[in-house]
Design brief:
The chain is an alpha/beta fold. It contains seven helices and six strands. Strand 2 and strand 3 form a beta hairpin. The two termini are 21 Å apart.
Length: 184
């Protein structure tokens, strides 16, 4: 399993948006098999002091979401950005060791999830452990697929809870990959 599905929840849409949670699931794109998972909530005040941006439109959008989604986001224990960075680095190291150059990080738009996480690292004086060439885009994969695979896969769990979103994205990306390769 050389892939990670990344999902973040934010309070903005800019490339320096404040991140509320980061979720990652190790998986195999060919089979859909999932491995290790991590989900961490980040300190908001610390991010604001270091350039994390909150926008009113996103806050209004969150206010329209189901209570269960909001509670899933705010009820996680919150950690300093430094601790989150260390936890993610240790998680990646434990799974992939020195082979991080071969890992693909799938984000729902490499200019959203992946970029925002990389910018968080930069704002806090760190470097994301997987090189930029590992950034891979869920939306591009779906655009290449001749069918609407998201409609064929049932969402299980709570929408906008990072791990649940990751698991759903893995299911429909695996299906899209199989269709594109002619295996479905």
């Amino acid at each position: 399993m050389r892939e990670i599905m990344l999902d973040i929840e934010t309070l903005g849409t800019s490339d320096n948006a404040l991140i509320t949670t980061i979720s990652m699931v190790q998986f195999d794109l060919e089979t859909g098999e999932v491995g290790s998972q991590i989900e961490l909530a980040l300190n908001w005040e610390e991010q604001e002091k270091n350039g994390g941006i909150i926008d009113a439109g996103t806050v209004r959008w969150w206010m329209q979401q189901a209570d269960v989604a909001i509670k899933a986001m705010v009820n996680l224990p919150t950690y300093s950005v430094e601790r989150v960075i260390v936890e993610i680095e240790e998680w990646i190291e434990a799974i992939f060791g020195e082979k991080v150059n071969d890992v693909k990080v799938w984000g729902n738009g490499v200019t959203f999830d992946n970029t925002i996480v990389r910018n968080l690292y930069t704002r806090h004086g760190a470097t994301f452990p997987i090189p930029y060439w590992g950034d891979t885009d869920v939306r591009t994969l779906l655009a290449l697929c001749p069918t609407k695979v998201k409609k064929e896969v049932e969402f299980v769990g709570t929408q906008h809870k990072g791990i649940d979103d990751c698991l759903y994205q893995i299911k429909y990306c695996t299906l899209a990959n199989q269709i594109i390769k002619g295996n479905k």
